[in-house]
Amino acid sequence: MIEQYMQTSRRSNPMTSLCTEVDWQSLNRDGEELCGDSVEILRPDDCTTVTVLSDGLGSGVKASILSTLTSKIISTMIARNIPIEECVSAIVATLPVCSVRQIAYSTFTILRVTGNGRAEVIQFDNPRVIFLRDGKHIEFPVSTRTIEGKTIHISDITLQEGDTFIAFSDGVEHAGVGHLLNFGWQRSDIVRFMEGLYKREYTAHTLTGALLDQCDLLYEGHPGDDATVCTVKVRSRAPVSLLIGPPCDPDDVDKMMNLFFAKAGKHIVCGGTTAILAAEYLGKTVNANLPKERDDPSIPPMAYIEGVDLVTEGVITISKVLEYSYQYLRGKYNYYALSHKTDGASRIALMLFEEATDIGFYVGKAINASHQNPHLPINFSIKMRLVQELTENLRSMGKHVKTSYF
């Protein structure tokens, strides 16, 4: 089973507007329904993101309880700026003691990114966080403290755009033991793998998925331990605006277009009538794009308008984008396959899922007479539902989404 979560948080920067992108995924130990690792992500304000990865003792239900308690307690306390000494003391006092080993044991990794362009990394007994800058591994300075008998490693790092932190549980380093590797997947091998894989345009989701896929491969599909990867990436905010449908009141066309095209970033226009209105507003023409061969014949062909980044058909295309969004959230999304497709749905999906951090939907509520044909599987309510579901899924990915109706 693969679980995934991605969240972005806005933060101010003197030079540019950056955001923190967080994604995590897990592999359960073979035969276990619950993962013994837990990840908790909190945003106490618009400038701070707190991410905690915890690994509970053993596997299954007990490990899940231990790691969940640890991640929730520590993330809540760190988000409230409570000192790490008090956080560790609270964990020691709270965790139940294993009846067999007589220890209350749960490791943790804390990554706190703040609006002043700094990251704090705090770790207890988890594999050391891998830090990539410009795709190359850098060892950052670490100080050590002993709290409640536990050795805590603490680092403070000044951030740059593109900086990437990769945290993981020891199930990743155990990959391959007794299978393809004698001593597991060594940290140096993981570093080389991520350096070789890294591309600047890859999102936290893509990097996390690639590392965990390789981990699963080394386990030959039968993980001997819970394995969790959590990636935190600092990136520029990338706004994308999507326009679909003409406004209910024809007098609102200019207002709708003014607001849509005034937004910075990339612009997507969906729907034939909508494309005509957008072209008229820009003083341009709609040029059809009819390739001889298409990746997916079920997706209508795209068009082109000078000044617009992407022009596609409306409801059928968005329906396919929605399908891709569910695949993304369920861990079934294949970035590499989608990136080689050229149809409208694939290109919208890549733009919204991979590029965008802030998304604006501009939705016209005019009823298209051709869609009211009872023999066609399209009507006004379906369009509204598609937009609403897609909005919810994008927010679940951590995107900042705003929808305006006209």
Write a structural description.
- The chain is an alpha+beta fold and 406 residues long.
- The chain folds into 2 domains: 5-236, Phosphatase 2c, domain 1 (4-Layer Sandwich); 239-405, no CATH class.
- 32% of the residues lie in helices and 29% in strands.
- It has helices spanning 60-79, 84-94, 170-173, 187-197, 204-218, 253-262, 272-282, 315-329, 335-338, 344-355, 380-396; strands spanning 5-11, 18-27, 37-45, 48-56, 106-114, 118-124, 130-133, 136-137, 143-147, 150-158, 164-168, 227-236, 239-244, 266-270, 287-288, 303-304, 310-312, 358-363, 400-405.
- The strands form 4 sheets. Strands 1-2-12-11-7-8 form a 6-stranded antiparallel beta sheet.
- A hairpin with a 2-residue loop joins strand 9 (143-147) and strand 10.
- The model is unreliable at 9-16 (pLDDT under 50).
Summarize the structure in short.
The chain is an alpha+beta fold and 406 residues long.
Topology, element by element:
Blueprint: E1 5-11, E2 18-27, E3 37-45, E4 48-56, H1 60-79, H2 84-94, E5 106-114, E6 118-124, E7 130-133, E8 136-137, E9 143-147, E10 150-158, E11 164-168, H3 170-173, H4 187-197, H5 204-218, E12 227-236, E13 239-244, H6 253-262, E14 266-270, H7 272-282, E15 287-288, E16 303-304, E17 310-312, H8 315-329, H9 335-338, H10 344-355, E18 358-363, H11 380-396, E19 400-405
Parallel strand pairs: 13-14, 13-18, 14-17, 18-19
Antiparallel strand pairs: 1-2, 2-12, 3-4, 4-5, 5-6, 6-10, 7-8, 7-11, 9-10, 11-12, 15-16
Helix pairs in contact: 1-2, 8-10, 8-11
